[in-house]
Amino acid sequence: DLQHDETRLPLMMDLFIQADLDLVVASRNIDGGSSEAGFSSLRHWGSDQATRLTRRALGISVTDPMSGFFMVRRSSFHQVSPHLQLAGFKILADMLAVAGPRWQVREIPYSFRQRQFGTSKMDRMVALEFLGLLVARKTGGLVSIKFVLFGFVGAVGVLVQLAVVWMVFSLVPGQFALAQGCGVAVAIANNFVLNNMLTYRDRALKGRAFLQGLASFYVVCAFGAVLNIGLADLIYGMLPVLSLASIAGAVAGAMWNFVASSMFTWRAR
What we know:
By secondary structure, this protein is mainly alpha-helical. The chain folds into two domains: 6-119, no CATH class; 145-265, no CATH class. It has ten helices and three strands. It has helices spanning 9-18, 41-58, 74-80, 91-99, 124-138, 145-171, 176-197, 208-220, 222-238, 242-265; strands at residues 23-27, 70-72, 105-109. The mean pLDDT is 85.
């Protein structure tokens, strides 16, 4: 896209060799650097907020962890690569979070230029992936970006499920199991669509594969749905609070749904 100043590469290489560095970052946020030409005012504000949030959340001292212009030593990259998140595209922030203070890092200024070719990768989905990266890193890598996104979709699904449960229960009073079943069925369809758009956007299903995937998603989530409905009905029988019983059922099936759908619906390994 020609937004990155290629004339800075010789200086980056010289620093890399002379100082025996692990990483050289071309920064828009130090003296001599700028990003006004390459961003709209809204994008500039968003980039600043993302930078502040990343540095604070992950304890990163580099001034521009969102930069896509950097040089890294191969041996250093191999040290951290097994621990990097597979989703998302802010690899610099991920590497810095994994490496911690072990790496010798230097920054040089550069001016982010106006885009000449292509289109920006930034959209709402990428923003959610970025937030997923922060959550994944704050948990020490115990959860993946995809699991965070799957959980976000699941939370939306819970709201959808609750809305359907309340609606059906108001139409058919006393039939909680029926209402919960309808809520689960609609929530599964909702979650499939959102996961296909967000969590598994890198392997999104289209056309006939979309319909086959939807059928697969229902099948692989069948056990989770049975667990969801059964547990919710059991809890409602003991404590007739609609929201509590419905949410408990939804949470119980969440882990199974993630594992099963990853393995069979989108075939992620």
